Amino acid sequence: LVQLFRPLDMLGWVYRTVRQGLIDMAAMFELIDTDAEVADAPGAPALVVRRPSVAFEDVVFGYEPERTILHGLSFEVPAGARVAIVGPSGAGKSTIARLLFRFYDPWSGRVTIDGQDIAQVTQASLRAAIGIVPQDSVLFNDTIGYNIGYGRDGATDEEIAAAARDAAIWPFIDRLPEGLNTEVGERGLKLSGGEKQRVAIARTLVKDPPILLLDEATSALDSRTEQDILATLHRVSENRTGLSIAHRLSTIADADEILVMDQGRLAEKGSHTALLRADGLYAEMWRRQQAERRRPGNTPA
Ligand code: ATP
């Protein structure tokens, strides 16, 4: 299916790069004509989200025909729950996120939101229902207000300021001489990694989606900033369904459920305590990360 992309088409390249990295996919989608390999079914209705549950039902998927990546994956995220996906590199965590956002369709099985097969609803309605907070946010060369309000057409300055407050970036903006009208990006004010993430959180809050997909930062932030941002994310995840792709286990120990992926299969699932007790892959990953944290020179996670 990859051949469907026009190889020399720059936008196609951007699209693929974005898709691969999960970098601000939502934002990029609107910038480029996403002539992707998935299409709306004829006469597809809009997704109607009353209770934002998410389910993978026996999903089989691969990027190339000769290599299966997800081998019949099933799991459920109840409406309002916070579920984390963990596992070794290459286990299929980002692939789950890409399928949920419908960058690809499964070979077999279904992905549903509130009981509706996401392949049968319009892509616009699907993407409106999911907010993504990526690990690395792209800022547009425009004002900080634009970068936040971008989450939803017609957002007012009041709504933008409220979102900035909830994302704890307002004090920073308020100190700028031109406030929300300050230019950012390459040609304007440079933001730190943490500030950029807060802009991404505010952007998602303006969009106000029932489902949040968090791609947790692996690095770039010092641990104090990371803790602050995690606290903000937890607060904004309340009353929403949250799916976090986590690299550091210490950040998701309080999730309602942890899905442990290994080589495209669900190896284990349960709470942090239950998984430690089970003494399997999760417990092993946990012990290893704890040992790394204790090594001299490492900042505590
Ligand atoms: P990490 O923690 O390193 O980000 P992950 O668990 O998120 O890993 P995925 O990105 O989902 O893993 O990748 C799962 C498998 O799919 C890997 O073996 C990867 O090489 C493969 N893969 C990912 N994207 C593509 C692609 N576009 N084409 C072919 N194979 C891919």
- Overall geometric form: globular
Low-confidence stretches: 1-10, 19-23, 30-35
Question: Number of helical runs?
Answer: 11
What are the secondary-structure elements, in order, as H or E?
Answer: HHEEEHEEHEHHHHEHEEEHH
- State the distance separating the first and last CA atoms: 40 Å
Radius of gyration: 19 Å
What structural class results from the helix and strand content?
A: alpha/beta
Share of β-strand residues: 15-25%
| Residue-averaged pLDDT | 84
Largest sheet: 6 strands, mixed
Q: What is the strand tally?
A: 10
Widest β-sheet, arrangement of strands:
6-7-8-3-9-10
Helicity range: 25-40%
The kinds of small molecule bound in this structure are: adenosine-5'-triphosphate
What does this protein structure show overall?
It is a single chain. It contains 11 helices and 10 strands. The strands form 2 sheets. A 6-stranded mixed sheet has the order 6-7-8-3-9-10, sandwiched between helices. It has a 4-stranded antiparallel sheet with strand order 2-1-4-5, with helices on one face. β1 and β2 form a beta hairpin. α6 (157-166) crosses α8, α8 runs parallel beside α9 and α10 (272-278) packs across α11 (281-294). The chain is α/β, with parallel strands linked by helices and 301 residues long. The chain has helices spanning 10-21, 25-31, 93-100, 123-129, 144-149, 157-166, 170-175, 193-207, 223-237, 272-278, 281-294, and strands at residues 54-61, 70-77, 82-86, 108-113, 116-117, 130-133, 211-215, 241-245, 257-262, 265-270. The longest helix has 15 residues, at 193-207. Bound molecules: adenosine-5'-triphosphate. It is found in: Cell membrane. This is ABC-type transport system involved in Fe-S cluster assembly. Residues 54-288 form the ABC transporter domain.
